[in-house]
Amino acid sequence: MRTKIKKIIQILALIGLFAAFMPGSYVLAIENFPLTAAADKIAPLKTLPAGFYQFNNLEIFKSPAVDEPPTTLEVIQRNEKSCVVYENGKTNLPLPCLFHNNENNVYLIQIEERTTLVGNNQEPALLSDFQAGEKINVLGWLAADSKTVRAAVVRSLAVKDFHQSFSGTIKKVTGDGFIITLSNGDEILVKTPIVEGAQVTVKGVFDKVNNTINSVLSILIRPTIVILEKPVAEPETPPAAPSTRPSTLFKNFLRVFGL
Length: 259
Description:
The chain is 15% helix and 34% strand. By secondary structure, the protein is α+β, with helices and mostly antiparallel strands. It has a 5-stranded mixed barrel. The protein has a 3-stranded antiparallel sheet with strand order 9-10-11, with no helix packed on it. The radius of gyration is 41 Å and the shape is extended.
């Protein structure tokens, strides 16, 4: 009996030794081996999911390339502890800003014709009022790439006078400008910016024969920029050296020759 048990144990031992060298068992051992993947040591990217948010205190990195929508603003979201975003634009639903490796976030703000642009006090503003270095608040839809925001409202936080756009009918032209009547009946005096030295762009039909522009569609007047240059100091002319008076001997020499 003992001899049979001993033989059975020996056979099982041989089977186990043979199975240890089988390829299938080797692969199984690798699959069951606990791996520490390098990816586990890398911090996952932290980004907001797509949705409707309000972003505050974004800094304009690049001004708009054109004066009319559609265009884009490149902005920076600074990595600060006080940074929050508001889900669905509700100030009672603050969310902490998400950053990767303590880096700042960069967003592309898409401005369309339907985007509302306002100033610091909610007054209407133009696209040209938004300049690099200034801060803005943006309410809009964050895309799935977590970088692009289609803006519904863009508010400038800069304290300055903002430009506005008015449309009306010219009622009267004066020496100081012209009066326009708005659709609501209000009359506004527009001080003419057309002066000598002003830079203008005129769109119309050019008549080469008479050298005139007819059927004017628009007149774009740029602000006059005066650059004060420091006058260049002219080199001072050295005073002429005083002439030496001829000596008495030289005068007598001239007299001998009748000079």
